[in-house]
Amino acid sequence: MSASVSPSVARVGVWLIGARGSVATTVVAGCAAVTAGLHPPTGLVTETPMFADSGLPALSSLVFGGHDTVDCPLPKRAEALAAGGVLPPGLPTAVRAELATADAEIRPGGPLPGDTRGDPDLITAFADDIQDFIRRYDLTRAVVVNVASTEPPPTGTALPPSSLYAAAALRAGCPYVNFTPSTGLDHPALAPLLASAGLPFAGRDGKTGQTLLRSVLGPMFAQRALAVRAWSGTNLLGGGDGASLADPAAAAAKNAGKERVLADTLGTAPEGEVHIDDVPALGDWKTAWDHIAFDGFLGTRMVLQTTWQGCDSSLAAPLVLDLARLTARAHEAGLSGPLSELGFYFKDPAGEGPAALGEQYAALAGFAQRLRVERPGEPAPHSGSDEERR
């Protein structure tokens, strides 16, 4: 959003895929709560001083809509999350109007059971929904963010749902963020459309817990010249993501990013693997445990064990808001292609960039400077190749 236009006039759309899920509900409720001053912007990197002059759209300017295949209204979903301790008590009531407004903008997703529409028809229908949303709210732009449950890798020629939505985003002229491990824009069939769209995009698979810790610890071992012999992990989680990751194919897609971080930061892939167990009783909460075997001076064998217990939706929601604002601003600035500087947020970042969290944060800080609001005597942000922008 241009700094010369009031946020109440220039509004930016956030179109969520999986718009009635836990993450999406927390995004909408959280944005309303922070905007109203009910809660501080904890977890929002874009609300830190680093981004003070970067021209990001204000949280109050964001308008929400999306696609989903379920029909549970957002206010009801928010009440369930509050009962489970994910949202603060009383918040669903306090932001009920904002939840209801967003829920009214959620359109049926697909393909649904028995759906006879082919890929082209579904892409057109989804793109029409997004464009209608933009027109009715007179939005300056909209960003499409995939926060749906993880899907297995595609088989056959049909596009998976995540790729149908990604194609619709491009067709609608919208930047795209894939916060999941699902295929999205990475399907080969979308390469021509992606190349011709000239839009910024980011992904994939949001880095919220276990992998966030790995991207810090991996470099520590490498920088201290400690030899990691094995690195094994276990995830216990419930909710929709736990159910979807009970599918071995979906779990394999999720684990690929976790393992890649270790290989990139350590220089080699250690022994061990990650196991994901669906525990429905945990709901939206998850526990991630890592067992790291390493050698010190003179071959002394040692072990580091870590336990991460967190609420997935609460960890993910501020990152989704960050990414929507950053990608919208990049679009306004004329940038296109993979936003590699946003690797800080992902397990498997688009474009080329470092894997260590500290280096990714430095790249993000450079991105904040690049997006700063134009001032007299300073050059405006400009588009360029991925290498030039790094």
From TrEMBL:
Q: Which GO terms describe its biological process?
A: inositol biosynthetic process; phospholipid biosynthetic process
Q: Kindly list the GO molecular function terms attached to this UniProt entry.
A: inositol-3-phosphate synthase activity
Leader peptide range in chain numbering:
none
Occurrences of domain Myo-inositol-1-phosphate synthase GAPDH-like (ranges):
209-313
InterPro entries to which the protein is assigned, alphabetical: Myo-inos-1-P_Synthase (IPR002587), Myo-inos-1-P_Synthase_GAPDH (IPR013021), NAD(P)-bd_dom_sf (IPR036291)
Q: Which family does it belong to?
A: Belongs to the myo-inositol 1-phosphate synthase family.
- Protein name (database record): Inositol-3-phosphate synthase
